[in-house]
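Observation: inputs received (chain + S-adenosylmethionine).
Thought: call the complex predictor directly.
Action: predict_structure
Action Input:
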Amino acid sequence: MRVPLADVEIARARLLPLAPGGFEEADADDEVELRLYTDSAGEARVREVFGSVSSALVESGWEDRWRAFHRPVRAGGLWIGPPWETPPPDELAIVVDPGQAFGTGAHPTTQACIELLAAHERGSVLDAGCGSGVVAIAAARLGFGPVAGVDSDPVAVAAARANVALNGVGIEMLLADVLRDALPAADLLVANVDLPVVEALLARLPAVKAITSGYLAYEAPRVPGWELRAHLELDGWAADSLALS
Ligand SMILES: C[S@@+](CC[C@H](N)C(=O)[O-])C[C@H]1O[C@@H](n2cnc3c(N)ncnc32)[C@H](O)[C@@H]1O
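Observation:
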């Protein structure tokens, strides 16, 4: 739907409950176009609230179109690629098929976490917000252990478990909310989530050391007791290595 610039705040507020997974915005002259991907029931709910909206069918196969862009990357001395690519025989490698979960390994926040992880003292790891499991699996391959992963999205936990099997590593992947549920004990927390979740999680003191990301280069978690030990920026994103003082 298109709304005048002056009304966009109100339109966003009305649309958000109908699109908890998010929506797109694009400038269109002196208006803003709000775009939502949904099914016919979702479309009916939007029409009920907004009246006139235009809609178009999305081509089938959109769920898997990302696969064409899933290319191997290197981070922390590891080759990280999709299962349909062949890892170089002389390199430490992991394969990841994120399915509908976050985490091909290509995102700067994921790469920065793995870089900081590779330089970190070895020990047990909790990957909070594990998505596809890419960071937890990288940790296991880099010699950390035991490693556990947690995500509140069942789709992510299923993908992470499948990736654990694909890589032949022993990692427990659990369905849990990192802000509310009991968490496995670990020396090192890795949390590539968003800044409010990172800060709330650090305040729970789930470990004595942490690698955090998921926020922009000009942002940083500020939580009493945690001191900065290392900082990395990649493509405008930040990752930090922290320790309890
Ligand atoms: C940006 S992805 C990171 C995935 C992967 N660790 C990586 O670095 O590529 C963040 C993940 O955190 C999960 N998440 C967000 N809030 C959470 C919460 N409160 N409890 C558990 N998982 C959460 C999301 O479902 C998502 O899979």
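Thought: report the result.
Final Answer: Residues 101-103, 107, 110, 113, 127, 129-131, 134-135, 150-153, 156, 177-179, 192-193, 197, 214 surround S-adenosylmethionine (CB under 6 Å). The chain has a mean pLDDT of 93.
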